[in-house]
User: What shape does this take?
Amino acid sequence: MNVQTFSALAEPHRLAIVELLLDEPLPVGEIAEKLNLNQPQASKHLRILNEAGLVEVHPLANRRIYKLRPEPLQEMDMWLDSYRRMWEMRMDRLEDYLNDLQKKN
Amino acid sequence: MNVQTFSALAEPHRLAIVELLLDEPLPVGEIAEKLNLNQPQASKHLRILNEAGLVEVHPLANRRIYKLRPEPLQEMDMWLDSYRRMWEMRMDRLEDYLNDLQKKN
DNA sequence: GCAAAATATTCCTTGACTGGAATATTCCTA
DNA sequence: TAGGAATATTCCAGTCAAGGAATATTTTGC
Assistant: This one.
């Protein structure tokens, strides 16, 4: 699993940007406006998200539309696979426990 | 989604600790040894993982066994749900595209 | 209670990150 | 081609995080 993805999402404004872009691609100006950021701050955060591969840019007239890229999140999803097994095992044990309870009563 | 989880996992050593603890709970000393960390560094990282809820401690004799907690990762899993929809939609479109190709030939 | 093992904390220094302000760049349109 | 809108970059100051070294704390067993 790539640490850069976590690092990019570890900043509240950047996480907010990603969640915002889930709805639809947006130009810098609107992102800044919706999140109450100054435009330079928005650009800087988008740069980092871009370097982490979490977004991609599509120029449109004199604006730049930023759009979510699924790959890093898919990687996260795959990474979580191993951990899902862990907590499902715990769930199984809980089921066993509840079954035992039922048998005893 | 809680930024603290990402923040905790954004440090390579801490990510390594989490991945190490997936196999089995371990005392500080062994964690430090397996990851080539000084003991104080290991303790400091474990403190942060603990504050983020990613691990829990169980004292055993004069050692402290650190163990993975699934909750934050489950939260991540739930958070990813929204994004899964996104990339599955893209996959669907890919399927449509491939179907079209087949019909044409 | 004391020594030793295991772990936690503190202090210090250094490097990285963030926001603000100013400025530069890019690209469209008239 | 000049002006203006949209965006990117730079510079600066303040803050925060990480590692190293030293030290403190806790717990056990004798």
Observations:
- Chain A touches chain B through 24 residues (CB under 8 Å).
- Chain A has one domain: 3-104.
